[in-house]
């Protein structure tokens, strides 16, 4: 909810802008600025506006980033239905890991390092 929406909600209780401004001690022009979104009120000013109509401001933290829910896709109808439970998802993951382990691997060769140079006091030679 934006500050403008919160103030609109206060006005919906039956007060005019002038009455709300007079009750809260906030000027009408400042109130118009809040409603248009040109300026943002402080938390204290929002609390004053609410207190003028008998409401208490209650703040709570909420996530600014929407929670990401994984989307399961079935490219064709021959695929199994989307796994829903944690156990079903774990079984799918186990099958994928098993398939990855079954893939052929190249043999590891020994690492070869370039020859080291000797550095003498006075510079490299």
Can you offer a commentary on this structure?
The longest helix has 17 residues, at 86-102. The chain is elongated and about 85 Å long. Helix 2 packs across helix 4. Helices cover 42% and strands 3% of the residues. The model has no long low-confidence stretch (mean pLDDT 81). It has a domain at 3-51: 434 Repressor (Amino-terminal Domain), CATH 1.10.260. Strand 1 and strand 2 (123-124) form a beta hairpin. It is mostly helical.
Topology, element by element:
Layout (H helix, E strand, L loop, with lengths): L2 H9 L5 H8 L3 H9 L6 H9 L34 H17 L16 E2 L2 E2 L1
Helix pairs in contact: 2-4
Keywords:
elongated; 3% strand; 434 Repressor (Amino-terminal Domain); 5 helices; single chain; 2 strands; two-stranded antiparallel ribbon; 125 residues; mainly alpha
- Structural class, from helix and strand content? mainly alpha
How many strand segments?
A: 2
Mean pLDDT equals 81
Note the gap between the termini.
Answer: 71 Å
Work out the strand percent.
Answer: under 5%
Succession of helices and strands? HHHHHEE
Shape: elongated
Strand order of the largest sheet: 1-2
CATH class of the domain at 3-51: Mainly Alpha
CATH T-level topology of the domain at 3-51: 434 Repressor (Amino-terminal Domain)
Number of helices: 5
pLDDT < 50 stretches: none
Computed Rg: 33 Å
User: Portion of residues in helices?
Assistant: 40-55%
CATH hierarchy: architecture of the domain at 3-51: Orthogonal Bundle
Could you describe the largest sheet, including whether it forms a barrel? Answer: 2 strands, antiparallel
């Amino acid at each position: 909810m934006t500050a403008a929406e919160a103030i609109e909600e206060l006005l919906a209780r039956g007060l005019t802008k002038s009455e709300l401004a007079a009750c809260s001690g906030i000027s009408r022009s400042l109130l118009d600025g809040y409603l248009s979104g040109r300026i943002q009120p402080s938390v204290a000013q929002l609390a004053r506006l609410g207190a003028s109509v008998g409401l208490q401001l209650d703040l709570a933290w909420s996530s600014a980033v929407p929670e990401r829910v994984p989307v399961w896709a079935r490219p064709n109808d021959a695929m199994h239905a989307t796994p829903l439970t944690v156990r079903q998802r774990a079984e799918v993951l186990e099958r994928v890991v098993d398939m990855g382990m079954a893939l052929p691997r190249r043999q590891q060769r020994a690492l070869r390092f370039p020859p080291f140079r000797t550095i003498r006091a006075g510079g490299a030679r």
